[in-house]
Amino acid sequence: MELELPAPLEGQLMTREEFLSWDQKAEGGPKYEWRDGLVEVAGDWMKASERTIVVNLIRRFHECDAFQSGSELLPETECHLEAINATRIPDLAFFTLEQIRESQDGGNPVPGWVIEIVSPSERFFNVEFKVEEYFQSGVRVVWQIFPPVNRVRIFRSVEVVTNHSGDSPCSAAPVLPEYEISVEDIFRGR
Description:
Elements: H1 16-21, H2 24-27, E1 31-35, E2 38-43, H3 48-61, H4 65-68, E3 72-75, E4 79-81, E5 86-88, E6 92-95, H5 97-104, E7 113-117, H6 124-136, E8 141-146, E9 151-155, E10 161-165, E11 169-172, E12 176-182, H7 183-186
């Protein structure tokens, strides 16, 4: 018996509420995001090979005072970016305790720092466009992690970007100055 997957939904009209209530992981297929009433393909859900990267990043975060104070580095969390009327699902997003409480009260806080693990199947234009969207919405630090080449790009604005590899340290400053991890440690165990 052949598994029947849902038809591609890119370009389908959907309200934000419909999008947020839709359990897309249960249906299988690519990861979708939402912008201005339209569903967009955002790439793939996190692969097993990327989980090691996420575990390494979160383990380092657990050493930070911010974690001890109730802040979180959350994987694949829906982030509504009101400034551009979009819902994005970054691979990791940093929320302070205050922002977590705000979201529990129905608010839509914008994370200060997001991390995207860029897979080879993602469209270059979409990857670059998201950086701009994040900064338009109030995100202050964006990391792009490229597993095939063990590199990290860190944006502190659309114009200010640094490239990291090897033992180069990656910092979440100014959002979380105490968070620093080397590229080697990000990819350790892969």
